[in-house]
Amino acid sequence: MENGKYNPVSEKSFKFAIRIVKLYKYLRDTKNEFVLAKQILRCGTSIGANVNEAQQGQSKKDFLMKMNIALKECSETKYWIDLLYETEYITNSMMQSIHEDCVELEKLLTTIVKTTSEAIN
To answer: Helices in 32-121 by DSSP H: which ranges?
Structure first.
């Protein structure tokens, strides 16, 4: 909640980041995987960081730029999730669950980016 208002993209991206940190710990501690784990940690937590930064944007263009970055990081995160699944670091049920959350975030961010772009132009 920001300024007493519910902000779904902020909340969802924060909760997603928590899941990513837990996935990172699992990959690092259980699978002894460090390179891919670090990649998904970086981009998966970056989504929420950019959303949060966008909230403090100095202009609509600044807001849009940060939301675009968050959207790109979301897309990259999906790539790493798929790769982790295909290389058998995570199970199908693990992949499905976190992938669904990522797709939901991607849809929210796409809508925000599209709506903001239309408002600016």
So the answer is: 35-55, 60-86, 92-120
Pick the CATH number of 8-120 from 1.20.1440.60, 3.20.20.150, 2.60.40.3600, 3.50.50.60: 1.20.1440.60
Residue type, 37: A
77: left (phi over 0), alpha (psi -120 to 50) or beta: alpha
3-class DSSP state for residue 2? Answer: strand
The tens digit of pLDDT for each residue in 43-84 reads: 999 999 999 999 998 999 999 999 999 999 999 999 999 999
